[in-house]
Amino acid sequence: MYSAERSMARHEVREVEQRQTRDTLRDPPLSPDIEDLVIIYNRVPKTASTSFTNIAYDLCAKNHFHVLHINTTKNNPVMSLQDQMRFVRNVTSWREMKPGFYHGHVAYLDFTKFGVKGKPVYINIVRDPIERLVSYYYFLRFGDDYRPGLRRRKQGDKKTFDECVSSGGSDCAPEKLWLQIPFFCGHYSECWNVGSRWALEQAKLNLVNEYLLVGLTEELEDFIMLLEAALPRFFTGATQLYRTGKKSHLRKTSEKKPPSKESIAKLQQSNIWKMENEFYEFALEQFQFVRAHSVREKDGDLYLLAQNFFYEKIYPKVN
């Protein structure tokens, strides 16, 4: 599938010639709006969120922005109404923390409802729903190589994911797949009603209308490359940093065993999987669309396109 995506980028995006020589190109000075920019990454668990966030931590001093972790009690992704008000007020008025990169396991929050000026830029990453659930299942039991000494909630349970599925266990039930949709749907009661078609459609609308970019765990490098192009104020140097393969940018769940075809087939029979997978496929198609119109391929590598628009017929004429 990956080679097909590369091919799509090659065929759908026409190579453009540089209209100006490099020494005539000048970046405009940073505007106050850029310096007030806030990014919110409402990270979905087990989607490579720690790997990506660590890049922001490594870049913040060099690129002069602030990184803040949103730590909610018991990792509850839904805030109380009063906490929503506090959070919106903090994000919009905390000038000492601007420009800022906020990250945490919280559901999407619509800032326009609170009567404030200025909205944050939302980004996120999604993952194949079954792969995400398998990773989370083993993470609860064995942890990962990021903090290997930390005791996890299900530590000591040696049952494999396949054994859980075959016995009808609760930790691998289809209901546990219902996570990426409500994270994008937000702070509405219907978002958290498992299997809600309304929640799925709302999540899709938010993805295309409220998120600058939603990447894929399976395509993390391309996601980072596009972010660096779109938001250089924050992500200059991010692609190279990711490619160096430093340990701080990697996090692998320990003792993870791939699920059997039988386990996958059983989960795929549920309407919950079908809806979560529909959302994932929707996000995948949108990401491929953005990438196909932002890059070209040469010798097997992707390169960002140069600016492909300019201004002309500017009136009135200036002497």
UniProtKB/TrEMBL annotation:
UniProt GO molecular function: heparan sulfate 2-sulfotransferase activity
Q: Which UniProt keywords apply?
A: Coiled coil, Disulfide bond, Glycoprotein, Golgi apparatus, Membrane, Signal-anchor, Transferase, Transmembrane, Transmembrane helix
- Name where it's found: Golgi apparatus membrane
Q: Member of which family?
A: Belongs to the sulfotransferase 3 family.
Instruction: Please identify the protein, giving its name as recorded.
Output: Heparan sulfate 2-O-sulfotransferase 1
Cellular component aspect of the GO annotation: Golgi membrane
Q: Where is this region: Disordered?
A: 1-29
- Main subcellular location: Golgi
Q: Which membrane topology term applies here?
A: Single-pass type II membrane protein
* Biased composition annotated in UniProt, kind: Basic and acidic residues: 7-26
Q: By its UniProt entry, which Gene3D superfamilies does this protein fall under?
A: P-loop containing nucleotide triphosphate hydrolases (3.40.50.300)
The protein's organism comes out as Danionella cerebrum
Q: Which InterPro entries match?
A: Heparan_SO4_2-O-STrfase, P-loop_NTPase, Sulfotransferase
Q: Where is the signal peptide?
A: none
